[in-house]
């Protein structure tokens, strides 16, 4: 039986639970918070950050390379917050030969589009500037804040697979596509298996993202520095109650 105490007994067990993607979200969050607070270890190594934070915020020039190339049957969950609409702006993605392919982006008018963007998947009434929004996409459906896409639009990656890594806060291969945005986490699935579970973290004065599946730390590949939200948990201090 998976219990709070059993997970806390060993980092390897925790890593297996996270990699499986089967634990309830509330249980995963609770276990990670307790895990971090007492400085436990995953896979025999101390986690490579000081604390999990609520979000990373790009000021327009910072971005993360996820190390994942999108395939046609991939799916994902993304929580994002946008301060304003300044131009056509990219949440994440990749491109080939200057064409947006495996890309999610927002037009100046607030419409959310996928790939080349010929059809609007969501208009500006479905999501809010200055507030948190949740986007989920699988092969069969795409949902934003609980609302299914407004058009019979294909899966964002169907027939539009890129050969470049997916970037967060920017589209790989697209010029002037950085964005002022907050992202708290990204979960990426392949054939129903969780392959990336990226959370926002800080180490010292640096913001980054940590992958709970691979144990890798993904650092800023742009210029300047990320801003970040309040600490969600700290590696040291505190205890289990």
Q: What is the topological layout?
A:
Blueprint: H1 4-8, H2 11-20, H3 25-37, E1 41-42, E2 45-46, E3 51-53, E4 56-59, E5 64-69, E6 74-82, E7 89-96, E8 99-106, E9 112-114, E10 132-137, E11 142-144, E12 147-148, E13 165-168, E14 171-172, E15 180-190, E16 193-203, E17 206-211, E18 217-219, E19 227-228, E20 231-234
Parallel strand pairs: 7-14
Antiparallel strand pairs: 1-2, 3-16, 3-20, 4-15, 4-19, 5-13, 6-10, 6-15, 7-8, 8-9, 10-11, 11-12, 15-16, 16-17, 17-18
Question: Would you kindly provide a written description of the structure presented here, covering whatever features stand out?
Answer:
This protein has 241 residues and is mostly beta strands. It has 2 domains: 4-47, no CATH class; 53-228, Jelly Rolls. Helix content is 12%, strand content 41%. The protein has 3 helices and 20 strands. It has helices at residues 4-8, 11-20, 25-37; strands at residues 41-42, 45-46, 51-53, 56-59, 64-69, 74-82, 89-96, 99-106, 112-114, 132-137, 142-144, 147-148, 165-168, 171-172, 180-190, 193-203, 206-211, 217-219, 227-228, 231-234. Strands 3, 4, 6, 10, 11, 12, 15, 16, 17, 18, 19 and 20 form a 12-stranded antiparallel β-sheet that branches. The chain has a 4-stranded mixed β-sheet with strand order 9-8-7-14, with no helix packed on it. Strand 17 and strand 18 form a beta hairpin. Helix 2 (11-20) packs antiparallel against helix 3 (25-37). The chain is globular, with a radius of gyration of 18 Å. It starts with a helix and ends in a 7-residue tail after the last strand. The model is unreliable at 1-12, 35-40 and 235-241 (pLDDT under 50).
